[in-house]
Amino acid sequence: MSVDGDEGAQTVDGDEPTLYEKRTLRRVGEKLPKAAYIVAVVELCERFSYYGAQGLFQNYITKKSGLGKGRTTATALTIFFTFFSYLTPILGAILADQYFGRYKTILGFAVVYTIGLLILWVTALPVALEHGAGFGGFIAAIITIALGTGGIKSNVAPLIADQYHRKTMAIKTLAKTGERVIIDPAITYHRIYLVYYGCIELGSLSIIGTPFMEKDYGHWAPFLLTFCMFVVGITILILGRRYYTVRPPQGSIIQTAFKAVGLMILGRSLDAPKPSVRAIKGKTTRVPWDDHFVEELKRTLNACKVFAFFPIIWVCFTQMSSNLVAQAGQMDGHGLPNDFMQSLERIVILLFLPLLDQVIMPLLRKRRILFRPIARITTGFYCIGLGVAYAAIVQHLIYNAGPCWKHPLACKAAKAGGHSADPLPNHVHMAIQTPLYVFFGFASIFLNVTGPEYAYTKSPPSLKSFIQSLYLLTVAFGAALAEALVSVSSDPKIIWMYVGIAVSVFVIGTVMYLYLGYLDREEDKWNDLDRQEAVITREKKSG
């Protein structure tokens, strides 16, 4: 094997590339392990149930055929559900990393999830609604479902990546062309999370069918479907057990990490907890970590800096299942349910994901352009900012159309001209929302793929569920911010809410890139810690 920087010698296949080879050779990923696909299918079933139910909540709470509680209550409860669903991953992560491991934790919370879906279905039956059990049952259901999905969510994303084992780059000569390339684990992890997110979006297409079931049969029918689909997911999870790579829990590792961070703060240095640094300073008290763990913790703190900018993104995504559904309801649907339009975002994602994975990213790598995580996240910020800005334009068009102008569905003309129990909407076709969901779809790919990937690849092996839960916690913060905006989620003030959110996204995304863009330039250095960890593990086993 050549030394780093030697431009003449060539590294043999299977060995790590030199610095010169890293600069000049094309990077490729590897095939995904079969177990990763099994875990992805389980997540598909879970997301089918989550979105198939959650996408109907706005209508279920609002309409007289459901709970009949009004738009403000519906928006508040829908946002609360999102908030609690992404607060509970902390509990799931602690139980997985310290006590039970990821697989057992997922299985336990799946049982809780099933109970919640059962409550949701039973209390939505006509006989239950007639006897006043609907609203109390709904509250109990969303709390239970949120607890279940949170415990699963923080562990499925790390579990799927656990199935891939390579930690170091390696040289490979392609049999067909003879081209020498670098197998880069970072690319494979990105592909894993593209597949993972693709399965999430496939599952979320349930929102295409469930609104029509709701319209034809009532809310109980789609809630029953989501319950049955989740049972299928649990069955696949159990049957696939023998194929998984399952990492054991690490005891009090989370407390250990917080102790190390505490020493960083007290010592006013990120290197303060290192045993080598402590020895130089004459501190003889033993600590339960080594220098390598502190380096991994420093990398994790960089990831947490990135996540600190994410809450504003979730304020935007929260609008999809609340205010943007209501916005569609203010326009002519010509037979389409108003909660159908949000499914366009999923369709955009499923059309664009294969194009990104099979065409765009390989083309960029062929030209030696590495579309690094911070650049992808920033692109996602700008895409979703454009989406919310377009939502403001749509709202402006609604306010400039009759019969109710700036108070859609609320004037006498709408009630007199409507049919059955539904008032007449303003004369704008809801298809005008389409570009909005195209922007949201592009943003989802760059944000919702890169976020979990970054949480996994930038955290120590023993803390991956916990760091994943911190990433998911940003969703809860975003939902809390969205909850604070409920008071301005009414006509005609809501148009200025959209404008304010859009401006905030553009500003925060730009600040994030200016502040943290350097992390892309240091990506290989931080990823090299995985190689060091693999070497340390081998030495411990052999020693």
Description of the molecule:
The chain is mostly helical and 543 residues long. The chain has 2 domains: 21-244 and 290-529, Growth Hormone, Chain: A, CATH 1.20.1250.20; 252-289, no CATH class. 68% of the residues lie in helices and 3% in strands. It has a 3-stranded mixed β-sheet with strand order 1-3-2. Helix 2 runs parallel beside helix 8 and helix 14 crosses helix 21. The longest helix has 35 residues, at 89-123. The two termini are 25 Å apart.
Q: What are its keywords?
A:
3-stranded mixed beta sheet; 543 residues; mainly alpha; 2 domains; two-stranded parallel ribbon; single chain; Growth Hormone, Chain: A
Strand order, sheet with most strands: 1-3-2
What is the helix content?
Answer: 55-70%
CATH homology superfamily of the largest domain: MFS general substrate transporter like domains
Q: Sheet with the most strands?
A: 3 strands, mixed
Determine the structural class based on helices, strands and strand pairing.
mainly alpha
N-to-C terminal Cα separation, in Å? 25 Å
Unreliable spans: none
